[in-house]
Every structure is written in structure tokens, then in C-alpha cells.
Amino acid sequence: MGTSRTIELYEKFKVKLEAVSGECYRVKTAKEAGELVSKVLRQKGVQDVALLDGLISQMGNFALQLGEAGIAVKLDHFREVTPDVQAGISQVNYAIAELGTLVQADADANVDQRLCSTLVPIHVALVSTSKLIPTLMDTMATLHRLPQIPGFVGFITGPSRTSDIERVLTIGVHGPKQLVVVFVDEQEEGVA
Amino acid sequence: MADKQFKKKIGDALGNNVLRGALGRFGDAYTIAREKAYEGYDFKAIRDNIERVKSSAASHLDEMLDQFEKEATARGAKVYRATTGEDAKQYILDLAKSQGVKRIVKSKSMATEEILLNKTLLSEGMDVQETDLGEWIVQLAGQHPSHMVMPAIHMTKEEVADTFTNHLNRLNEPEISELVKTARVELRKKFLEADMGISGANIAVAETGTLIMMTNEGNARLTATLPPVHVYLVGIEKIVPKFEDAGYIIQALPRSATAQQITSYVSMVTGPTPAYYSDGTVKDKEFHIILMDNGRRKMYEDEKFKKTFQCIRCASCLNVCPAFQLVGGHVYGHIYTGGIGTILTNFLNSEKDAQNPQNLCLQCGKCSEVCPGKLDIPEMILEIRNRIGEKEGLPFTQRFALDVVSNRRLFHALLRTASIAQKPFAKGQPVIRHLPMFLSGLTEKKSLPTVAKVPFRDVFKTIKQEVKKRKGTIALYAGCLIDFVYPKIGEGMIVALNEKGYEVVFPEGQSCCGAPATYMGDRKNARICAIRNIEALEAEKVDYVVTACPTCTHALIDSFKELLEDDPALAARAEELSRKSRDISKLLFDLGGLSSGGDGEPLKVTYHDSCHLKRKRGVSAEPRKLLSATLGVELIEMNESDRCCGFAGSYSIKFPELSGPIMERKLTNIEATGADVVVVDCPGCLMQISGGLDKQNPKIKVIHTAELLLEKRKKSQKRNKK
After folding, report:
1. How many inter-chain contacts (A to B, CB under 8 Å) are there?
2. Does A140 reach chain B within 8 Å, measured CB to CB?
3. N or C: which end of chain B has fewer CB within 10 A?
4. How far away is chain A from the Cα of B605, in angstroms, using its nearest Cα?
5. Can you give the pTM of this predicted structure?
6. Residue B219: closest CA among chain A residues belongs to which residue?
7. CA A112, CA A75: separation in Å to the nearest integer?
8. Three-class SS of residue B214?
9. What does the pLDDT look like over B158-176, one tens digit per residue?
């Protein structure tokens, strides 16, 4: 996963995401991702987190690692917990390098995916580095090639924002105030 | 014509410093930010794509709507076609009642504003919350959005704080980050309690039955995630054929609307998605889509307004509009504001509602230049103006003035009388303002020129033309201002064209090009002018027809053809005239430019682009090259060189209160360059800017390109002879 093409796409994504106040990291293994996320969330003073366990977080034993870091991990009942927890962790399907954009496109339009990424003040998004797509138009083509367009496709670019009062940019309105993106190089077993 | 009440609204808006400040700051920043957002992207290609996919969808509208319905239904959506706003409202109300809905959250939808949906739902005792911050503020304040994309742009943080304080019964400080926090907390409760969501959509994809929403705050995501009942209200113009077609709109909308590369969130919804119900179970939500016509089809079926279906509602036409920047959205009176708003109001509300706001358009064309849907908004507004003129007739004074202008003998006799009558008056004090035409006007902020002692048509007879190596003949079309106010410009044109080997003729029968009639909505008189000039100019007999007034050029090249399209014989002659007509700068350039010349004396000049020359003819580099090639001339570009000077023909008479501030901005930009001379290519701009500078900074002179070339080159010839 160290090809120059990947590095180029990642670098581009990082610049774009940081330009819209997002945080961007890249690690080799899922285990390292768990360590990083634990560290970052602790630094932010997070005490509890909603974890929508996916392939990366399972491979990296996130639940265990976060627990060891002293963070309470909620693994279900998201409708009740997400309005109150301090952070949410979920895996997203693609990342668009051109724009610094994450793409949620679960085939089952999982409602918990949206709860864990929208209601929480801090959203940590995990994404496989191999899922970097160069451009928006490539992404539209990729989605179009799926067996069917998933019921919900969500593009996320940085934290939620508004300029509705006097055109002054303010971060964090209805959605997250912080967005942390972690790219993981390690290939997921059985997932293309 | 604008009525008194409308004039008062304009006065109030102009007197509102908060509004002026907010709109001004945004307008200034927008142009630069928009350009930056498109950096590295081919805007022309993006808008070509949007035009292609949107116009193709519109021309197969029924097919597209059927396909959308079929696909969305196959995915589990319930699709309803609403012919009118009332139908849509009734459907939503019935749905809400049948589902026992009490609390509704809405994410931004102009279509629901259009049909005043909130009022209906509130009157049934339901709690309805707007959740876009700007819309929520406007809702709490009991107002309407003043801008499609930025609904509360007209309010200060102090006003927002007061609104929150009144509504929430606790003190809110005018601190923006705190106000946003308050909105988050208050609306979060509403989201979690809501049993129904109502949304609008930016795009509807026929191929897949997908709806696409673009927002920054996250409210559309929450509305699409939490409530177990969801209804989308979608205008039928939102449709695109294929899923990937939506990509072009996603490329353009955020860049054109708010100068962002992309909004924080883009949500694509295809059929019902699972939601949590109040009993804790997760299952597919009750999911409805209303495809609403409400006047849109009528708009499409009207040949002149077809292109409104290419609009993506980015509001960039508002953001660059000199008039909108001064008065804001509420003056327009209805939900949709600005240039596109005037057109939508005409069809979606009523023609009567568009009657006043259509007057606000300067016809400067800046909006068309930035429009990602390639709409010619000024042309459509002009069409509305014409239809009003035809239906209602113009007020007597205007009608009389235009009848005079289209009667050549009477009009010219009046102008000659004016030249004598003004003599006893002090310098620059214009009798001309009593003339029944666009030259009259208010002199509060600018001086007006006097009528020339000898009109160009008489000067012409005394000019000796020296043509070496004769190549052909060119007919000079002077237009009123050059003929009767600025004959020197005509002289400059002749010298330059002689140098290129052409003899210049002046067809005597020529008269006003009809633009004053055209822009006031009087197609009948415009047509009379067109016929007279076609007959007088006899384009068949010359190589070119040249003018030094871009508005006249536009008339000769475009308007005459349109006015006469129903008369085959005249249309053919109009076509011939159109083909041969050129603006002087463009013609000189096409003929290979002038040999290097000029007196070499240093002169700092700055160039003002006339709206009609740059945007109707695409001429902007040519005059600059002619100027730069003149020895001694140093060209210094001004900021916003292609921004309207505020003259706009009769506009400066109809709305001196708007024309004035627009001109002042131009003068400020001119002064900042430190130039000695402003060069223009339009006698109308010349009159406006020189009138303004005469009062504000008489040291700076204003001169037409042709006149500058004449002066600088004549002097050098004299010197050479010595």
C-alpha cells in the first residue's frame, strides 16, 4: 500500500480535509488505528464513545483498546446513547481525494451508521486506504456500478458548519463539531 | 413602471445600514471566493454539462417523471404528483393527520416556502420547526428568507440575539458562536422528538429514483435519519436523467452558491431507509415524495422561459447583481428574490407580483456570465417587461417619449432646438433634462452633458476623408448620443477607418436604434426603429456597418433580427445587417489593428468595460490592445472593471437612488487607479461616469476609445509634419 499513487491521493485528501478543519491520520495496521484513536480521544478528554463495530475496529480490537484507555464504550442501543456520548466511531466506505470527502454507502442503509456519525460532537471515521477514489466524478461512477444505489449515501466533508449569521463561519451546528479521519493500510480480509 | 409603494420599499432598504453592510461585505468577498473555488476547474465545461443534462431532462419531462416514479416506487417510496401548491399542501396535511403527527422538523426547502406550507400545518395545531439555522432565525422573527441560500443575511447578530431572547425567554448575548450553540441545543430537542420530517431536494435522478440534498449544518442528515415519517417536496425542474449527471450539479452548486468546493454534507436518498420507531423497533420509515408542478410546466412550455429548467438554485445571480447588493431580497416581495426570483415569481406566484421587481434589473448581464445553468436572466426579465408593456401599456410620459424617439423628424428637430435653447444657461446646466427621452434625468449626483452645437450628421459633411489604397466602404451608425452629444467620437472613428483603407458613409435616414423602447418594454416602437434603420443603412451596399455604442451594436446585431423574425423579407435584411455590424474596437481589431502611433506623451489610462460590449459581444481584450499599442498610453486596470456604471439607459431616471450608489462604487474604483483618464467604449457609460466625476473629481477625464485614438494620433501627425 505504499505506492506513489496512494501516497499522492492520501496527501491530497489530507490537505483538503485540513482546509475544512478536519483532522487526518494514516496508520499501517488496524491495531495501530485502535491505539491512535484511543490516544486522540483521551487527549480530547472523551470519556464515553459509541462504537459501531466494523471490520477495521474489530480487526484492531477497538473495544478492548478503548476500554483499557479508560473510555466507556457503547456498542449498541445507539438511538438512546448517541445523543449523549462524547464521540462516535464508524467505518466509512470510500474517501474522495479531490475534496477531502468521506462517503458512507452501506448496502443496508444502516441507521446506526448515521446516528454514530451525526448526533455525536466528535466523529471518528475509519477508512481503508485502498478505498481512496481520485475524484467526485469517479465516485459517482463507483456508486453507479454498485448492484443498486444504497438507500442512503452520505458525503461528509469536515465538521458541520454554518455562516448563516452575518456570514461568519462557525463550526459545529447540528452535526459533529470535530471530524477525525483515520486511514488504515492493512487490507481487510474478504473485503474487496 | 415601479409604483410608489415599491419605491418606498427601496428607500427603506437603502436606509437600512445593517442590510447594506452585510450585503456589501458578502458581495465583495463572493466574487473573489467564487473564482478561487473554481480554480483548476473548467467552469465552461461544467455549465455546458449542466445545460446538457438539465435541458435533456426538461425536454423529456413526462418520460423522466414517469421513470423517477417507477424507480422510486420500486424502492418502496410513495410518489405523488401535485399539480398545484394546494394539492401538495393537502397531501402533506392528510399524511400528517393519518400518521398522527404532532411535531415536524423541516430541512431547508424553498418549495415549501413557495406554497406557505408552514402556515397550513401550524393552523392544524402541529409544531413545525425550520432547522436550517438561517431559516429558523427567520421563522422565529416572523419573516421570510431574503436570499435562497442565506435566508437571514439581512439580520445582524444583535437582531438574532434579540429574536432568540424573545422566543426562548432568556437572555441571549450577541455572540455568534453562542447563538449557534443555542440553536444546536434547542433544535436537537426538536429533532429527537419529531415524528415527521419534511425536506426539499436539490436534485432528483430519474434513472435511480434518488433524491440529493446538499447542506452544511447537518440538518438534512438528521431530518433524513430520525423521524419515522418523511416527505420530500420536490419541484419538477429538479430532475436529471442519469445518476452520474448529478455529479455536474454537485460540482457547481456549492462553488457558485457559497464559494465552497463542496458542502459539508451531501445526502442521497433512494427509497425508505430504516428508522427507529418510538417503541424502539427499527424498520423502514413511511416515505413519500411529492413531485410538484405549481406553474413550472407553464414556464417550460413558454418558449422564452424554457431555460429556467436549467437553473440549479445557487443564487449566484443574486450575489453578483448590483441592484440586489443594494436592496436585498425583501424588496422583491416574494419567496424567490433577485434576477431568477423575478422570473420564478412571474410564473409561480403571478405576473402582477413580478411587475415591480422586474424593474430592478439593470440589464448589465453579470448574472448570465456566472450562471452555472447558462440562463440568460436579463433577456427573460426583458421579455417579462415587454409583455407587461404590451398588456398594460406604458405610462403616458414614457409612451409619449418613446413615440417621439421613434419619429425621427420630430425627435431630431427637438434635439436641434435643445442645442440652441440651452445656450443662455450656465455651463453644463442642461436644458437637455427636459427632453422627453433617456437623456433626461436627475442631476443630483452627476452633471449632464449639453447637446452638441452641431450634430455629427452635419459635421460629417465637412470631414475630408483621406483613403489610401481603398479597400471598401463602411456605413457609420452614430446612435443618438454620438450624433447629438458626442460627435467627436464619430470623427475619431472616421480617421481610424480611413487609415485602414475604408471610406465612411453616413446614411442620413438613420435614427435611434430603439434601445430606449426595448428596455422600457415597448416592442412596438422598437420595431418601428428597427425597420427605419434597416432601410436607411442599406447594409447590402457596404462592407461593414460600424457603431461606437455597444447598446446600438447589440440592437443592430441581435434585437432587430428578433423584432422582425415574423417578416421574412425584413428578417433577411436584418440578418444581413447583423452579419456586417461591428463595434469600432472590434472592427479595427478585425481589420488588423492600427499601425503604431500616438504622441508618446505619458498618459495613465484605466479602462471601463461596458456591460453590453463585454457580455453581449464578448469584446474586452480588443480595446485594451488598441490602447496599449498607442504610444504614451499606460493602461492601469481598475478593480471590477466590468461592473456596471449604473447608467443602464432609462434606469438612471427610474431609479436614481440605485443608479447613484452603483456609480459611486465605479468612481471609487476609478480613483484608486490614479489614472488621468478613464477610457470607455459606450457613450452611455461616458455620460454617466463623466457626470459623476465632474462632481466628485473633475481632474479625471472620461473619453471614448475612438476619441482617445483620434487625439493621441492627431497630435503625433501634427508633430511629424513639423
Report:
1. 163
2. yes
3. C
4. 36
5. 0.91
6. A174
7. 10
8. strand
9. 999 999 999 999 899 999 9
